Amino acid sequence: MKHTLLLLLFSYAACGQTKPLSILELLEHKQQYTGKTITVKGYYYDEFENRAIYYKKKSPIAKSIWLDSFDKKIIFQNAKGKQIDQSELNRKVVYVTGLFKYSSDTIAGRIYGVGHMGGWKGELVNISSIIEK
Description:
alpha/beta
């Protein structure tokens, strides 16, 4: 638990955050956070063609952020600070720390997104940790 708190505090301080952002805060202020390492709180889903963090359990894709491919260096921890397999966090509230990118590219007048079939407008890349709340 102690290491989890230190990791989160370091993540917030590195990007000037005082607390984790919600998905809605992040999307509302997307220009402010684009290109910055941030920590966001939400429901983690890691399923077929759906690796994302959502505002609520049954939120639409518009209220979620795609999570880019994972590096083997990512820290997955439960609420007690114990390292666990990522599958144990599926559909739980987590804090995810990574670099935020927002897609505003348009093709034929349509915003082209990221993730599976370009369905998401924002993503976290270079993810360092996913920690259960």
